[in-house]
Specification:
Elements: H1 5-12, H2 19-26, H3 40-50, E1 52-59, H4 65-77, E2 83-88, E3 93-99, H5 100-109, E4 113-118, E5 121-124, H6 135-139, E6 149-154, E7 167-172, H7 186-195, E8 213-218, E9 225-227, H8 228-240, H9 242-245, E10 247-252, E11 254-255, H10 266-276, E12 280-284, E13 305-311, E14 322-323, E15 341-344, E16 348-351, H11 357-361, E17 366-367, E18 371-374, H12 377-394, H13 400-409, E19 411-412, H14 418-421, E20 425-426
Parallel strand pairs: 6-8, 6-10, 7-8, 10-12, 12-13, 13-15
Antiparallel strand pairs: 1-3, 1-4, 2-3, 5-9, 5-11, 13-14, 16-18, 17-18, 19-20
Family: Belongs to the peptidase S8 family.
Protein name: S8 family peptidase
Keywords: Hydrolase, Protease, Serine protease
Amino acid sequence: MFGFSMIKLVRQHADKLDLQMRSKLVNLYRPMRKTPCFLHSSIEKWLTKRSKIKVLIEFHEEEANVLAAAQVQEYIAAHRNCKVHHQFGSIPFCSATVTANALEDLLTNCNHIKKIHYDREVRALLDKASPSIHADVLNQSGVTGKDITIAIVDTGIYPHSDIKDRIIGFKDLVNKKSEAYDDNGHGTHCAGDAAGNGYLSDGKYKGPAPEANLVGVKVLNKMGSGSLSTVIAGVQWCIDNKEKYNIKVISMSLGSSATQPAAEDPVVKAVEKAWKEGIVVCVAAGNEGPDDNTVSSPGISPKVITVGAIDDQNTLDRSDDKIASFSSRGPTIDGITKPDILTPGVNIVSLRSPGSYLDKVAKDSRVAKDYCSLSGTSMATPICAGVVALVIQQNPDFTPDQVKEKLINAAEDWGLPAHSQGHGYLDVSKLI
């Protein structure tokens, strides 16, 4: 078996292939375990020419992104069934579909390549559906997120009456549609968690930033799943359009298992670039608790605001609140304390997207006609993003680092281990 070409390739270029990529290539030979040896050669030729793999190709930082991508395009064009999909302007990556033969050609001949990552699945971080963070204290003093735009990088946004007049942009990287929609329902709920104004509930179900603008960036499909490359493309779109839509906050209630250090993680590099460009990024910690070391990527980034979930017991009194059992705990793969902060994430009532996937499979989660109740760090994250919009409205010159520090200073120590609560439970009244 060690004589097979892809096994040799993995051994020769192990430093340029991430763990999932190495496993993917080795597993190409799995069907051959039950086939006679004399057929192996012909089967291998077929597999290496026909098996298609989605990848993220990372270039050396010092190389010109355009030049490197052009060279990759040249090599890939020489192989059938191969294609470059995205070239990302802010980080030195491109995404592509390649065969094993094309991959071997790239690794052998292209000197611009730093590493090739498997374009693995990313999912909406949903567990199963009122905030007691005291956001009303700021709302009553006129701090409502007005003119601040929050980008919801998720499954899309349904134009619900509570937000439709404030959806100022929409980008669909899945189905390429131009009008705002949400065929899953997760992104719509998140949009309401951040910026719903409670119009259809007489103000009862309202997010912390009820006058903030929204941009929907659809990177996950109807089933709530997507790929690293599509998520990165969504973040890149936010960077490219931040001035056009005044995007100040990105909310990402999605993630994948953290399998490599933050410094090597492609999505971490994308969100940290957005952070460097002046956009505050809020990311869900994940729903793999109560076990330790379960924080998802890109929540492992030391820069972004990683949000865990607390159970507010559906009461305004915080004394009975407790951390949600599902909320992922740190430390991260690098030993960094995460999450950064906790906000409510259990039985959160927000906007319903009629006819969407979640609306059909979780009918018991519906609340009245226009809302639904969901739980997860998915809900906690946009609640935090809404609070970020309030901070930026009050302090328009703040950098993302200053915004994060402001939130950390407004967190109440809940007496839990740091890798469970981070800096504690957010109390918006302390922002005054």
